[in-house]
Amino acid sequence: MPRSREAGWDVFVAHAGPDLLAAKSLSDALADRHQLRCYLDADQLREGDQWPVLLKRALARSRVIAVLVSKSSDRAFYLQEEVAIAIALHRSKATAIQVVPVLLTAARQRDLPYGTFGLHSVRQGRDGWPGVADRIASIIA
Q1: Are 61 and 8 in contact (CB under 8 A)?
Q2: Helix intervals (H) in the chain
Q3: pLDDT, tens only, 34-75
Q4: H-assigned helices in 35-127
Q5: The dihedral of CA 65, 39, 141, 105: what is its sign?
Q6: pLDDT at 1
Q7: Torsion angle of alpha carbons 132, 13, 78, 115, nearest 10°?
Q8: Where does the pLDDT of residue 11 fall: very low under 50, low under 70, confident under 90, or very high at 90 and above?
Q9: Higher confidence at residue 24 or residue 74?
Q10: Cα 86 from chain centroid?
Q11: In a designed cystine with 16, which of 25, 76, 94, 132 is the match (CB 3.0 to 4.6 A)?
Q12: What is residue 105's DSSP assignment?
């Protein structure tokens, strides 16, 4: 269910277009298991929205920015823009905003977007999205 566009967010889920289903799965796991407020563009943006402005605002109002990493990441222009904004926010508010790369099953370290190589990542593994959600939620706790 969409929340107020002026609200703060616990987790912003950044993803490449082809990874929308994975992003939705993570967002649902975070909300269901930990009652976290997640920003997922597909759930929040409406027709006619000035999405560059709204995405930038949502990034700035998030506590954690989870960057889904896949083989599609390098070709995802808007994901690259979100990562650049996320890294800038992290550097300016290092104690307030955490950026967490989330490596999808087939992703490799070399698939990490520029600016995220030095960040400790979470790998989608045997525990699936619930396990990833638990790891991300532990940052916020």
Answers
A1: yes
A2: 20-34, 41-44, 51-60, 77-92, 128-140
A3: 999 999 999 999 999 998 899 999 999 999 999 999 999 989
A4: 41-44, 51-60, 77-92
A5: negative
A6: 40
A7: -60
A8: very high
A9: 24
A10: 9
A11: 76
A12: T
